[in-house]
Design a protein that fits this description.
4-stranded mixed beta sheet, 9 helices
């Protein structure tokens, strides 16, 4: 029986990108299907006292990607969102392209979606749907974590934060372990200090 996984991401976050690539690799070695959903770091951090540099990033870059993503999901469905995230994340993280409407428009065009969504993503048109998606993902794990959030068998956890994303059977092994710890309702946290940044490959 296929294991259904729900994955909440903000396309701005490189760690969510790493976890998303891991889950796509898991699908190659396990009977798993991942449905992608949108959360928003800008929404999560709204009203919080943030370091000036992070606040500036949220204000300048934090909305365009998530608004475009929720617009894609609303108009085209979850599979289109999955493809759009791959196109946009590749540009943001591997290509180091700017988080601008022009980059969003190029990603939309790449996967055959309406490039005018890049214009809609500069408005609040889809913000109600964005906040709803955000809270469906974030409320079960609490507001003191970020992205990614993964739900499997009805249980949600923040993470994993990984670098680089494992390949092949190593990806499957990590998923097996993730499912096991997620299943226990009293499990809350494992952590060690990060010694590397996101390693994209």
């Amino acid at each position: 029986m296929t294991t259904l996984v729900d994955f909440w991401f903000d396309p701005l976050c490189p760690w969510a990108w790493m976890s998303s690539r891991w889950l796509l690799e898991v699908e190659k070695v396990r009977d798993v299907h991942t449905t992608f959903h949108v959360m928003s770091l800008a929404e999560l951090n709204s009203g919080r006292d943030l370091p000036e540099e992070y606040r500036r990033m949220m204000d300048l870059e934090g909305w365009i990607g998530v608004r475009a993503s929720i617009a894609v999901e609303q108009r085209y469905g979850s599979e289109a969102l999955r493809n759009f995230y791959t196109a946009l994340g590749t540009r943001f993280h591997l290509g180091q392209e700017p988080k601008t409407p022009e980059t969003v428009r190029a990603a939309l065009t790449e996967v055959g979606l309406d490039p005018a969504i890049a214009d809609e993503a500069q408005t609040e048109k889809y913000d109600e749907a964005l906040r709803a998606s955000h809270h469906v993902g974030m409320d079960p794990v609490g507001m003191d974590v970020g992205t990614p959030v993964i739900r499997v068998n009805g249980m949600s956890l923040f993470g994993p934060i990984i670098s680089p994303a494992p390949k092949g059977e190593a990806a499957g092994d990590l998923f097996d372990g993730f499912v096991k710890v997620t299943a226990y309702p009293g499990f809350f946290e494992l952590k060690r200090t990060r010694t590397v940044g996101p390693i994209f490959d």
